[in-house]
Hints:
Blueprint: E1 3-7, H1 15-25, E2 29-33, H2 39-43, E3 56-58, H3 63-72, E4 75-78, H4 87-92, E5 96-100, H5 114-123, E6 132-136, H6 141-146, E7 155-157, H7 169-174, E8 181-185, H8 194-206, E9 212-216, H9 222-231, E10 238-241, H10 246-255, E11 258-261, H11 271-278, E12 282-286, H12 292-295, E13 303-305, H13 310-322, H14 324-340, H15 344-359, H16 382-388
Parallel strand pairs: 1-2, 1-4, 2-3, 4-5, 5-6, 6-7, 8-9, 8-11, 9-10, 11-12, 12-13
Helix pairs in contact: 1-15, 8-9, 8-13, 11-14
Amino acid sequence: MRVTFITNYLTHHQLPFAQEMYRLLGEDFAFVATDSMEEERIRMGWALDGKKYPFFVEHDEDYGRSERLIMDCDVLICGGAHESYIHKRLEAGRLTFRYFERLYKKGRIRAFTPRGYFRKWREHTKYRSKPVYLLCAGAYVPADFSLFFAYPDKMLKWGYFPEMKTYPAEELLKEKEGIPELLWTGRMLGWKRGMDAVSMASRLKKDGQKFHLTMIGEGECLAGILEKIKQENLEKEVTVLPFQKPETVRAYMERAAIYLLTSDYEEGWGAVVNEAMNSGCAVVAGAAAGCVPYLIKHKKNGMIYRSGDVEELTALVTELLKDNTLRETLGRTAYDTIVKEWNAQHAAKCFVEFCENLEKNNVTFRTSGPMSKAPYISPKNGYVYTRKST
């Protein structure tokens, strides 16, 4: 079975899956990159030399080969690449998996403009009866695509699969001893809501809690965050660092007892949650982020709060600070979630099995995790869904 994965560029979030597909399929797997990485992501340490990998192809440098890989493969995965790259394949009815985050992160009202609706019908709904499936990189993806009746019974749970590490459990927990370390990482943009973490820290200090918060990142909100830290006299409790390389961030996660994800609905997935869970952190995450309903079960392998609700965020973190046993239990279970199910190796295996079954005219969805059916979750009810379903 020949599989081609076409997307904008290769990142450390996609690399483990690509490597595992190559391990399973050898030269029958290819990764085609269409664009160069943005400068901001390069500053974040995301840049990879794709040419180091035998499966990597740059579309513009080897146009003829790229077009053959896209058109002639048995299975195509299309991520962050324009529809024009795969139009001929879709028209020919060749097996294709579209790979998307949310379409309407800033509000679904945009779906109902005539021009936008027609465009989505042309790119997606038009192929609803063809062998085209949707890999949903986020729990709210099905709700967006259902607005124009695309991919009926063809939406599958998916996501991002950064590097999975294995650790001796006791060794990992030992790294987290002492005054609890809290961690927040990412671009400091408005929708990432980093200020919520600072506001939480201020409340924790006033309540007499012992903790330290490290924030890693840069962006338009950095100045405001630094000013808030100064105003609230949090210089000892909160440390702010610039962007670090991914491996350095993972080292901070390995020492952190609690990881915070404060983003709103513009967070399509949130791969840092995969990494933090894999590092044994007790994750406290807002329900709006796309990965949360897929990865976290409230008070079983993490905690979920209503995004933007600093009071609830503070209450959950306080509970973890006061209860070492609960904190460690959530961290252990979070680690197991990634190692047993939400990782590149398992995802690649599930994907290949699904495609092999399709070749036999047998559509078989897994019961959980990658390649299971993606349920419809309204963004308005995401918080309620995540709390009730756990």
